[in-house]
Amino acid sequence: MRLIFSAAIALLMLTGGAYAADAFASFYGNTVKITGEAGKRTVMINEDGTYSSTLPDGSTITGTWTNKDGTACFNQDGSDAEPYCVAAEPREVGETWELTAPDGTKEKATLVAGN
Predict the structure, then answer these.
(1) Domain-located, residue 53
(2) Is 90 part of any domain?
(3) I need a labelling partner for 25 at 20 to 30 A (CA). Which of 45, 61, 74, 91 fits?
(4) Predicted pLDDT at 38
């Protein structure tokens, strides 16, 4: 019995550690609202390494993202543009933070509940 209990605790700790290591865990199933000089857009980050974004004109783009060494880079499908890279930091629903766009302009992002 003691062995089963110890194994269960170890599994819980490992699972919790993996969850904590994923800086975007709180983003999945939620929406990032971004406001900048180009207008307002929303971004949905998916756990499978994909994302979608609704732009100020109402059009939607999709792409993939990677997280390496604390930097998340978003690559738009079918585009030769440089990826949009930001620090991959855990955030809480309701939190607002500043981003620097690839062109150097500042943007404000807020993580909101739901899609």
Answers:
(1) yes
(2) yes
(3) 61
(4) 87
Sign of the C-alpha dihedral, residues 48, 44, 113, 109? positive
- pTM (2 d.p.): 0.77
**109 contact partners, CB below 8 Å, separation of at least 6:** 32, 33, 34, 96, 97, 98, 99
Query: Within 13 Å, how many C-alpha atoms sit on residue 93's CB side?
Result: 11
Give bridge partners of residue 34 from the DSSP assignment: 41, 109
In this prediction, residue 101 has a pLDDT band, given cuts at 50, 70 and 90, of: confident
- We report the CATH number of the domain holding residue 39 as 2.40.128.640
The domain in which residue 53 lies consists of 24-112
Strands annotated E in the chain = 31-36, 39-45, 50-54, 60-68, 71-76, 84-87, 96-100, 106-112
Q: Assess if residue 70 is contained within a domain.
A: yes
More confident residue, 87 or 63: 63
Q: How many domains does the chain have?
A: 1
What average pLDDT is seen over the chain?
A: 84
Reduced to 3 states, what is the DSSP secondary structure of residue 21? helix
